[in-house]
Amino acid sequence: MRITTSLVAVLTATLIAGCSRPEAPAELHWRFAGGNALRTQTNAPQLAEALQIPQAAAASAPLAARLTEVLWQVGSGGKPLTPAEVASGSVWVADLLRLPSVGEITLLPKGGHGIAVGIQGLGQGAAAWEKNWTAFARAMQAARGGGEPAILRQEGWVFAVSDATALPMAATAKRLTAYRAEPGTLVQFDARYPGSITVKAAMTASDGFARWTGTVTTAKPLAPASSLGAWEIPGAIREPLAQFTAIRGLRALSDSLPWIKSWAGKSIPSQCFVWGQPGLPEGGHTYFAARLEDPKSTLSEINQRLTPLFPPANPAKFRGQLDYGEKTGRLTIKGSLPVIPTFEAQKQGDLGYLTFGFVPMRHSTNALAPELLTQLNRANLTYYDWEFTGEATRHWHLIGQIHGLFEGRHAVQNTPGAQWLFAATPTLGETVTEALVTGPNTLTFQRKSALGLTGLELAALAKWIDPVPPFRRVLPLGTNAPVRKK
Q1: Which of 303, 356, 399, 458 measures 20 to 30 Å from 274, CA to CA?
Q2: CA torsion, points 453, 456, 458, 463, in degrees to nearest 10?
Q3: Is the pLDDT reported for residue 485 higher than 50?
Q4: Which backbone phi and psi does 160 adopt, to 5 degrees?
Q5: How are beta strands 209-218 and 442-449 bridged, if at all?
Q6: Pairwise pLDDT comparison (232 vs 5), residue with the higher score
């Protein structure tokens, strides 16, 4: 997913300017047990409950519409989408979310992507599903060019391809059938990014939790675990914590994952940290730090990138006032907002850090819990994330609305995604995610959580689901002073 060039991306993308993403996957295969199976399973009860509440039902239609838009963009090569195509697509996509399915998105020899799906359990609804699939696929092919769609019924399944010329029906159905589920798997997928990485992941439910396991295989050899370096945790991180994320080895991994360089720009931090402190305001107590050799230089680069977005730039994308202190190493964004985003270039002995927060940092003398430090004390650990997910979700939800405030818009809380988020997450417990270097070309990751997603991912999903932008312009225009340089 592309990291946007909005203010929020600049502020939260590890505090490093420069925004991009890896290439879209050339191939994606998935197998899904279906929403009905997730709602009725008993091994991860909070996941089942979150999908049974009325707010989940209200969010299902906009979710199907958004997935329809994604599939159209992939299959049509980015051609415009009409309301009629959204309507026909949303019907068969809604069934993919509800029933067992298998599918693939494949890069075709002549360019573009073909889509193939199989769905089980349609019963008497099979004819209507086939009609909607055919209408959607024909419109998609007309927009891009290609062969006719096709459908095959086989042993309780309905298989469909968007282009029978490029994806012969019988051979494709056989290939989809061969992509079998691992024992106990609710969701599994394989994605291949050309010349970069292959990702394989699966989610199961056991012992009360949704559990993800997976691997990332790189085209180029990874740097060995011994090159990750010792953890250099900023002294500003203190208890109590509601969330904590640590990443190391970005420089060592950047040769194998070149999109890191395009994402980070000139300054690739050796380590990154995110932490949140409990209490109000939820969104204000989340902080970021990047371990850099020359944080003041990176701060200057961020100031240069933000300057065209604020007055006196005309037109200015955001409201507010940049206050950049070159000597003090501080950049503050001021305005009539409930937060004051602040970047600071700091030194901790010989170590340099660039830190960021939406409100001034709360200082504490409480050291990090020994249990947390023990979890980090593994030579091949490159990523570790721990959180109280209910609290972390509130943090990220509010942070995701900051850029709307800077654009002079006020948050609306009654959209389907937001309502589901507020209802499903307050009582969620801990989520732990970790990634380790386990081979010359392999990263292995695993996660234990209530819903399978972190607070950041849940907040992003809810915002993505919403059928209309979750903001409305109500804030009056104010006077924005120009940047002040000390």
Answers
A1: 303
A2: -150
A3: no
A4: -145, 140
A5: antiparallel
A6: 232
Q: Which amino acid is at 476?
A: P
- 25 to 74, 77, 193, 439: CA distances (angstroms): 10, 14, 4, 23
CA distance 4 to 1: 9
* pLDDT range class, residue 195, cuts 50, 70, 90: confident
**178, two tokens:** 């061969």
Distance CA 249, CA 270 (A): 6
Enumerate residues 6+ apart whose C-beta is below 8 A from 124.
none
Report the pLDDT averaged over residues 436-465: 95
Kind and range of the H or E element at 84? helix 83-98
**Nearest Cα to Cα of residue 201 among 381, 460, 462, 453:** 453
Pairwise CA distance, residues 316 & 408, whole Å? 12
Q: Do 65 and 467 meet the contact criterion of CB atoms below 8 Å apart?
A: yes
Cα–Cα distance for residue pair 379/363, rounded to 1 Å: 30
Least confident interval from 9-23, 169-183, 286-300, 451-465:
9-23
d(CA 23, CA 193): 7
Say how far residue 208 (Cα) sits from the centre of its chain.
24
- Calculate the CA 367 to chain-centre distance: 31
Which residue has 């203010």 as its token pair?
Answer: 7
Task: Please indicate whether residue 410 or residue 49 has the higher confidence score (pLDDT).
Answer: 49
Q: How far is CA 194 from the centre of its chain?
A: 20
- How many residues would you count in the chain? 486
How many beta carbons lie within 10 A of that of residue 371, not counting itself? 8
The C-alpha angle 212, 217, 223, rounded to 5 degrees, equals: 115
First-last CA distance in the chain:
38
Please determine, for residue 24, whether its predicted confidence score (pLDDT) is greater than 70. Answer: no
